[in-house]
Amino acid sequence: MNIGCDIVENKRLEKKDKRFLDLVLTKKEQEEYKKRGLSYLCGRFAAKEAIMKALPNTKNYHFLDFEILNKEDGSPYCVGKDFIKLSISHEKDYTMAIAIIND
Predict the structure, then answer these.
(1) Which of 10, 13, 68, 78 has the most CB atoms lying inside 10 A of its own CB?
(2) CA–CA–CA angle 87, 83, 42 (5° rounding)
(3) Which pLDDT does position 58 carry in this prediction?
(4) Torsion sign (Cα): 11, 17, 18, 23
């Protein structure tokens, strides 16, 4: 089992442009970001960073290799990668995520 954690100061991502969004968010994630705003972007960014920290050989992966959506109960999951467990938390100016990889 591998664990990765990341924290983001939300204001760092406030003024990110379309190019950044295209590098970090899949099309479905971008659609949801338009509805939910900055906290959604921060959560996805932190979660993908946490995943990368938990995976061996992260040079082989890119942000778009991971699509993070929400189940009906609101919990995040990584599409098609059931071996990755995620938790995303928001608190005022910060967002953090934890990824657990069962190998």
Answers:
(1) 68
(2) 30
(3) 67
(4) negative
Domains of the chain (ranges; CATH) run: 2-101 (3.90.470.20)
In angstroms, rounded to a whole number, what is the distance separating the alpha carbons of residues 59 and 69? 23
Cα distance between residue 7 and residue 22, in whole Å? 21
Length, in residues, of the chain: 103
d(CA 77, CA 87): 9
> Which pTM does this prediction carry?
0.93
pLDDT at position 59 is: 75
The string of pLDDT tens digits covering residues 48-82 is 999 999 988 767 889 999 999 999 999 999 999 99
Q: Are 87 and 5 in contact (CB under 8 A)?
A: no
Structure tokens at 27: 């099309």
